Every structure is written in structure tokens, then in C-alpha cells.
Please model this.
Amino acid sequence: MLKIYFSFFLVISAIIILAAPSVYLDYHLSPIPRTKSEIFRINKVVKITSDFSISENFENKPGGSSTTFTKNLKNAFSQNSRNISFEQEMDFKLGNALFRKLWVSSPSSTLATDGLGPLYNARSCQRCHLKDGRGHPPENNSDNTTSLILRAAIPLEKSIKTSKIESYLSSIPDPVYGKQIQDFSIAGIPSEARIHISYDEFKVNLSDNEEVWLRKPSYDLTNLSYGDLDQRTKLSPRVANQMIGLGLLNAIPSEDILAWADPDDVNSDGISGRPNIVLSKVFGSEMLGRFGHKSSQPTLIDQIVSALETDMGISSSFALEGFGDCTIYQKSCRKAPNGNTLVHNKAEISDTGLDLLHFYSSNLAVPVRRSANNNSVLKGKEIFYEVGCTSCHRPKFVTHRLEDKNPQSFQLIWPYTDLLLHDLGEGLSDDVSEGFATGREWRTAPLWGIGHTLNVSGHTKFLHDGRARSLLEAILWHDGEARKSKIKVVNMPKPDRDALLKFLESL
Model:
């Protein structure tokens, strides 16, 4: 069922313009305003269907014209958008080279590669996003946690204002260990800690005598090199997200996302999606959050800058400190040589390098839908819609109309997310707030491509910390706003559950 706010699209848009023009205008994209006739057509095409006898028009192309039709399933997430030009293919390949590049510590024989750390979680983007796919927790504590990081944050009793632009914070980094725990370091600098994960398992009984065991993780740090954590510090695990379709998510009009929000649950359906409004480090303004498990980054370039700085210790023109996440209490870390150079605008990666990484990340294509007209898939789709999953996993959007033949321009896409924050219950809470997101709130994860996870990433670990070992386990962890839908899945006949899972695997 469509949210009632969507029916009052123009009224809400006017309110947003008055309240937060930078959020509404998406000025970083320079979009072409929609005409009245386009708005009418868009509202019609994104309306949620009630006909499950056949797949919808263009449903097999979740990324619009950019959708890839590759048959190479292991590399299904590493294909470029089909609608980029021949000249842009070179930019994509250069961006891919940067994404895969192993950084080294400074000083080194090449200015293009040094600047790693001093503290870091991975030496390349590809190490976390292997084959551009989803990360996972280590299989055992002898493995490293390369594609899982631990945020370190101290919750505040009440929000505070910071910076020249109002930005409300409800948590701050650990004073000694910074924003997150880095378990690797360059020679001569101690890494921060080793991360250990343990699990407690419990059984959930489903209808038709089906049983599922869920596992709840606990995290411990050993070999703390810089003293104890602050007693108030909370650790929040985050696995790396898949990379496909990010440019398309970046191009969804903010007003279309905000029109779906219902923070006070005015329509009394139990779903209260909230936007996260965060400060853009790149554009210097408060904007709508879209990226990260709690929508803590507003644009794709913000996400890239943050990952370079915090995960690898790579500085850019938007984060010039060559020491990355080293705090004032990690003096040897701050004094270590860095790779900042005039050749790269006094940073370790040049603006040209950032542009190439941004283009690559924007144009990793979404794979074509499989078996969209299969009878079991259609039945599963009907169940997905009937139990209320689409209240958060919004099926369709139309992206901004953009200038300069942008590949993301005016595409009908099927990401199955509203990019809003939802309370998923105490079981998934990490007690860490980001922007306006509470510990219990998480961004609705996009579902497109989820059925390719095993082929691409070699595992089926889901949710923000990879605790769920299957799609069914991920569903059973849903609570809070999703509790009613979860209970319906628990109680439905097993053949219906199987059809629901088959639909998800087709995405």
C-alpha cells in the first residue's frame, strides 16, 4: 500500500523546499526539473502493483538501461553500466584499477601508491568489497576481519550542535581509538587491537515443524595497544556493502525519498520510516543520508572520501590529514611519514583519482532479473507484497533527469529500498547513533542482486554484521516496525515461505 504522503507529493515538496532547500534541490547533481506531465507519468509507473499474474513492464531490468546481462555469475557485480559511452569505458577501467590497487606506506618509490595508514583495515577497496560484493565476518578468530569493521562510539545523553553548519550528533568517537578499530598498521606503528567474535545460538520454531537456529554475535578486543577503551564506548560491527547500483541510488530525487517518510506513523500502519539528515564533508551542507548501514553518508563521493580516510588512512582534498583515524593520543601514528604531495593537491590521492573512483563506483551495473515470470517467483512476489515488506523495501523509483548524457539519468529502477531509517528492534540494536539514526534504526537495505551473493561473494551472510547465514535467518531477525511482517512469515505454510525465498533469490 502506498504511503498517504505520496498522495500529497506536491504539498510535501513545498514544505521540504521551505524547510531544507539543500536537501530538496540535490544541487550536487544539477538535475533538470521535472515537468507536470513527467510527475504524473512517474507517479503512475512507480505505483505498487496488485497484479501478480505476470511480471511488470521492465521488471527484468532493475537498473534500467544500465542493467547488465552478463552470464559470468562470479563477476556479476563487476560489470559496467551498459549505457556508458565507449570513451567512458576507459574511465571505468581506470577507476577499477584504483579500486583494486594495493596501497603501501610512505615513503615509497611511487607517489601514486604510497600513503597507507598508519592505521588501517584494508590495503585496497577490493579487499573489503571482494568482486564488488558483500563483506562477511571471519569464519573463525584465526582469520582477519578485513571486510568487517568495528565502529567505536560513545553515546551522548542528548544531541549537541557542532560546526558552522548545524549538525546534530548523538555519539562521538572514542577519544583514544577514534571512529573505528583498525586491526592493521604499517611497520613501526602498533595496530590498535585484535577483534574476536563469539556467537550464542537459539532456536526459532516455524510453522509446519520447521526449525531455524539464529546466532547472536558478541565482540571482544584483545591486544589493545593504546590503553583501554573509554568505559562508555560501544562497538558496532559493519560488513562491507555490495557496490552495484550506487550511482542510481545517488540519483534518486530526495523529494521522492522524503515523500515516503512517515516518522509519526500518520497512516497507522506501524511503519515509521525516518530520513537521516547528515553533514556532507564534500559539499559543506546538511543533506539527506543515503549510504551506509545507517544512511550516514549523503552522497557517493562522501562515502568514498570517508572510506579512504577511515578504512585505509588515505587523505584527499576533502580530508587532508595524512594520518587518517589516528587520534591525538596516538602520537607516533600522527608523526609517521605520510604520502601527501603537491602533485596530488597536498593529499595522497588526487582529485582525478577521486573522480575515477567515483565514476567506477557509480557505474557498477545491477544484473538482470532472473525468472521474473516463473510461477513460484510470482507467488513469492505476491506474498512479499501481501505481508507488508514493500512498506520499507520500496520496489521502484525513477531517477533524476540529469545533464550531459549521464548514465543514471531518468531511469526506472527496482532497488527494493526506501533509503529511510527503520526501527528493527532491540535484537539488532548496536546502541550507536549516527546523525539522527538511533541504535535500533537501520537503513532499509537494497535487495537488488541479493540472489547473486553466493556466486559473487562465496557466502550467504546478511544483515549489517553478517550474523544471518541465509535470507530466512535475515527475515527472522527483523523486529520492531517489521515485527508484524516477520510473524506472518513465521506462521505461513512452508510452501509459501519457500516461494517468498525463491522470489528474493530471483532479485
Summary: DSSP finds 16 helices and 14 strands in the chain. The CA atoms of residues 476 and 486 lie 6 Å apart. The longest helix spans residues 86-100.
